Every structure is written in C-alpha cells, then in structure tokens.
Amino acid sequence: MMKKIIFGLAIAATTLAACNSNSNKSTESQNRSKDTQAKSQTDNATITTSSVADAKNTISIKEIVSTYLQLKNALTRDNTTDAATAGTTLEAAFKNFDKTALTAAQKKTFEDVEDDAREHAEHIGKNGGNIVHQREHFVILSNDIYDLVKTFGGGQVLYKVFCPMYNNGKGAFWISETKEIKNPYLGKAMPTCGEIKEELK
Amino acid sequence: MSFTKKLLLAIGIAFIAIQFVQPAHNKSDHALSTDILKIVNIPDSVNAILKNSCYDCHSNNTVYPWYSNIQPMGWLMANHIKQGKEALNFSEFGSYSPRRQLSKLNAIANSIRDDIMPLSSYKLMHKNAHLSTNKKTIFINWAQQSKDSLSGIN
Ligand SMILES: [Cu+2]
C-alpha cells in the first residue's frame, strides 16, 4: 500500500508539473495574441471597430468574411501568429454579429454555421505556433464560410479555390478575394496549387 | 523538531486533508438515444478502440482506475473529463447539428493522425489505450467512412 501511495504521489507531482507548464504556455500565447491584436487594430481600420470587446451588434457578414480573408492570407504566408490573431478576431466577430435584422430562416442558417465556425476560429486563435493544427481547422472553417456566403452574399466578388494535393490527396478548398492562386494550406512550399471552381457574387 | 521534519509533517497533513475532497464521478447508467452508437455504424474493432482509448474522457461513463481515489490524481482526471466532454462527447453525439457531427468526425481523424489523442499522460497509465499503427488506420478509416455516410444523408 505504502508503495502505491508513494507511486501515486510521484505521478501526481509529474502530472501537476506538466499541467502547469501547459497552462502557462497558453496564457503566454494569449497575452502574445492580445499584443498583436492591439497592434493590428491600429494597422487596420476595419478591425478596430470589430475587436473592441463589447462592440456588440456592429458586425456585418462582410466583416466576418474580411476577417476570414485576413486569416487565409496569414496562412498563405505561413504566419502562424497573424493567423492566431485573425482567428481570435473572427471568433469575436461571430459573437458580436447583429442577428436582429435576419429573417427566422436566415437566423437558423447563421446560428448553425456560427455554432461550428466559432469553435474553429477559437482553436485557430489558441494554436499560434502550431500551424498544422490551425490549417486542419481552416479546412472546415472554409466550408462554413462558403455556406455563409452562399446564403448571405460576401459583399464582394469571391472565388472558391480547390487544391487536390493537401490532406493526403483528399484536397481542400478555400475562399479567396483574388483570382491569383496563393495556397493557405501548403503556404510557401507550394503556393500555386489550386484551381478556381466557382465565382461567388 | 527540525525544519525538515516540520515541513514533512505539514505535507503529510495536507496530503491526508485533501483526500476528503473527492470529485463527483462521471457515471450514468442509461444509454442515451444520442449516443454515437445510434448515429453511425461502429464495427467491433472500432468500438474496442473507443472504449479503451477515448470514452474515459469523452463520454458520460468513465472507468475509474485505483489511483483516481488518491488526490490530487482524482481532481486532475475530473478536469480532463470536464474539458474532454466539452470538446467532444460521444454519448451526446446525436444532439450535435449535422454540420457539427461532420466537423467532429473530421477532428477525430485529425487527432489520431497527429498523435494528440489520447492524451500522453493517459497513455502512460493505460497501456491498452495506446494505438498501434494498424489500429490508427482502422480508426481513421472509420471516421472518414462515417463522415461520408453522414454527408450522404444530410
Ligand atoms: Cu483544435
């Protein structure tokens, strides 16, 4: 029995230590993303309004889409920190979106997408430094944004671009504001993989 | 009494004191109609993997090991279970929207491919939770097929 207790204590000590270092890391990266967020607020006027903590009911679909595009562009540059910042901003944008003007059917679509997309945006925000995992979430997030644009329009001309090489040959698509191909999944390693499948107006 | 002795005594007392704070157990008897078993087809090989490697943190039923009765081990487990169920609960899979179900199946396949699940601290204590390459392939293929079959319906 004594042996078991000592063994248990030893494990407890190691797991506790492991847990601590973990949570430190996440607060540290949160702080870091707050800093960068503050910086990008001054850089970019559209974001300034959207990421103010309690600026409720000021977000439009166009702003959600433009934040998604910032995230996409950060990933094309392999920039995991900017991607995390955009992810956090995107989560806030979904949270602060004004649903009051929507019809009941539109509201249902929006909430269905929001429920899923917010979690992906949140995880992308929390995983600065782990671009592989950010890109995994970006696959499904792109699907969500596509459905959103199909229902509400994107406020600008957009393209659905598909690259068959990512994800073990299963491929994945993303939404782009330009016809020029810059791949957010493969980044600088293979920037031009992609083909425009659809124009969304 | 020397300082070391006092310190050891204090640690000993603290250790005994925390034993009285037992976290509530994650156990429910009735199978829910929202269980993943009711939503997608699960072959025995996959069911065994889910039971041995995932359900302790991602379902409404945890099989508690002996050391979970020793604090702070029990607290740590309770915390993993809380966070794990928030991220994904196989017992309530059917209550997710079709969109979320597909999204979660995708995350399940990714978590195995990237080796982030089951958590490594868990694998340390549960030898049979470890997934061989063969088991990983079976499991990832199952997640993929379930995704395809669900997206066919929806
Ligand atoms: Cu994640």
Structure overview:
The complex is a heterodimer of chains A (201) and B (154). Chain A is mainly alpha-helical. Chain A has a domain at 62-200. In chain A, 63% of the residues lie in helices and 8% in strands. Chain A has a 3-stranded antiparallel beta sheet. In chain A, a hairpin with an 8-residue loop joins strand 1 (158-163) and strand 2 (172-176). The radius of gyration of chain A is 20 Å and the shape is globular. Chain B has helices at residues 3-18, 36-39, 44-58, 73-87, 98-113, 120-125, 133-153. The relative contact order of chain B is 0.14. Classes of the chains: A mainly alpha (201), B mainly alpha (154). The A-B interface holds A 4-5, 8-9, 11-12, 15-16, 18-19, 112-113, 115-116, 119-120, 132-133, 136, 139-140, 144 and B 15, 66-67, 70, 72-73, 76, 97, 99-100, 102-103, 106-107, 110, 114, 121, 125.
Comma- or semicolon-separated keywords:
heterodimer; A: 201 residues; mainly alpha; 3-stranded antiparallel sheet; B: mainly alpha; 7 helices; 60% helix; elongated; binds copper (II) ion
Give the topology.
The complex is a heterodimer of chains A (201) and B (154).
Chain A: H1 2-43, H2 45-51, H3 61-76, H4 80-96, H5 104-126, H6 131-152, E1 158-163, E2 172-176, E3 195-200
Antiparallel strand pairs in A: 1-2, 1-3
Chain B: H1 3-18, H2 36-39, H3 44-58, H4 73-87, H5 98-113, H6 120-125, H7 133-153
Helix pairs in contact in B: 5-7
Q: What does the oligomeric state look like here?
A: heterodimer
Number of H/I helices of chain A: 6
The proportion of residues in beta strands of chain A is 5-15%
Helix/strand-derived category of chain A reads mainly alpha
Query: Largest interface: which pair?
Result: A-B, 22 and 18 residues
The secondary-structure element order of chain B is HHHHHHH
Beta-strand segment tally of chain A: 3
Low-confidence segments of chain A, given as residue ranges, are: 1-57
Principal-axes shape call of chain A: globular
Give the overall form of chain B: elongated
Mean pLDDT of chain A: 78
Which residues of chain B form runs of ≥5 with pLDDT under 50?
none
Distance between the termini of chain B: 72 Å
